[in-house]
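Human:
Take a look at this sequence-structure pair and walk me through the tokens.
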Amino acid sequence: MTDRRGLKPYDVEVAVAAGRDETWEAVTQPAVLRQWFGWDYDGLDAEIQQIFVDQATFLAPEQMGWADGSYLEVTGDDDHATVRVIREGSGSAGTERFDAIEEGWRAFLVQLRFLFDRRPAGRRRTLYLTGETTGRQALALVEGGGEWQRSGPRVAWAVDGDGHLVVVAGRLPLDDRDAGRMEVTVSAYGLDDAAFETLRETWTKRWAPAAADADVTTAADSAPES
């Protein structure tokens, strides 16, 4: 049994443009999960299997939970739904405390909302950029597109001029002046190999001068060290 003492509580939710049943399928079926959850690396399929199939316990209709006491629930009707991920804990809930699982859910639920809002055609392929930089520098990477929107102090997202979703997540608040570990996930849909390679080259050239220890991970790569 997981020791829940000291765990940071969190409550993260997102409204999506899909009905309750379609949304529940998106958070339980591996083929659909791959269209929004996480980022590509050589272990993503195994990670999805472990989290959502092997370790998840179904607690009620449209609700599943995990050993740390966290749970995910889907509520709504035939046209709209809300996905909410909750963990109760006795630790500090302040925004100054970083929790990797909480921030992961913030980023990933943004990606789920994008999937339903835009309904992009084709298979999702991602670039996962990691390195040490400031939030200001990371947010300056996107060219064209819409304005940045926030999900808490450490996660922001925008759609670039090519229609790709860009999610920035930092260990430090994005408005902090100090440099810290930064993660940028670029989600693109329906690209063939040539177009995806062009995208990778473009972002690699942007990221390398902006971050120390800059790295770019794609589906063929192992997960970078955290």
Observations:
- The first strand starts at residue 10 and ends at 16.
